[in-house]
């Protein structure tokens, strides 16, 4: 069963000259966490605002639990859409206590105080209900925002860059805590982030937006093994495009109309040609070595004159080496990026 169904959704802010979102179609299964990943300007916020009812689409349809909430002739008001929202800014009312902040969204619910206290319990803030937002840390405030969003039992919870305000250590810790809480509630989640690590850590599926279009929606393992484009491949690991010069350097006969790439970790480096078991190999000079903890980054000049940067764990690698890869590890895309 799907909680969210998006069909051919488009939105332009300049009367169709360009599209912030263009022909976006996907579904989100009930109880799943889907991360929306894309660089700045790719349309993540526009998508969230359309789903939440803060913008109207130019075309397409949005259904929540099989009810149309937005289309060319339907527009359900945001407060009627059963969506819980958590943003980067915690958006708590500074003059209300933590408990009153959570109560705010459930004024019409029976036993609302009990429900609010249960939510605060769920997010681990049971003893702080009489405090005001400024008396809490950033991470605690974000958990209050989560409790408030979950209190009305939303059909869909949207988290829009909820951890961007926090430093890296706290961010990973809070992310894991928040998603552990979310998993207990079994709510369906759309999680917007520009951080692929965030997405990989907690999402069942990841949807990649580029220039307002969906380039791929898949489970993390497939995004790594079968990326649709070079852009997707580069989001999930260091990737080198095998351009025409590299194809010649490695003497690999590839189809000219396609685009090819190789993951950095699939490139093998050996001190002797006899040790290299790769199908495509070339000789190279090490121009520069940079030690990065347990790995060494090598700037190479290939026999053909091409330059290439690779990684190795062999700290005693010689200055003349053999570098290569196998056909099975080559990523292939239909068109040039
Ligand atoms: N209200 C608006 N008026 C005009 N253009 C807009 C408006 N909102 C968004 N855009 C444009 O739509 C495109 C998508 O923007 P959007 O904010 O959805 O991207 P984003 O992926 O959320 O970016 P970021 O990660 O920086 O928040 C951008 O080109 C942006 O300039």
UniProtKB/TrEMBL annotation:
InterPro entries: AAA+_ATPase, ABC_SmlMolc_Importer, ABC_transporter-like_ATP-bd, ABC_transporter-like_CS, ABC_transpr_FbpC, Mo/tungstate-bd_C_term_dom, P-loop_NTPase, Transp-assoc_OB_typ2. The keyword Iron applies. Pfam families: ABC_tran (PF00005), TOBE_2 (PF08402). This is ABC transporter ATP-binding protein. It comes from Bizionia sediminis. The keyword Transcription regulation does not apply. GO terms for molecular function: ATP binding. Residues 4-236 form the ABC transporter domain. Keywords: ATP-binding, Cell membrane, Ion transport, Iron, Iron transport, Membrane, Nucleotide-binding, Transport. It comes from the Bacteria. SMART domains: AAA (SM00382).
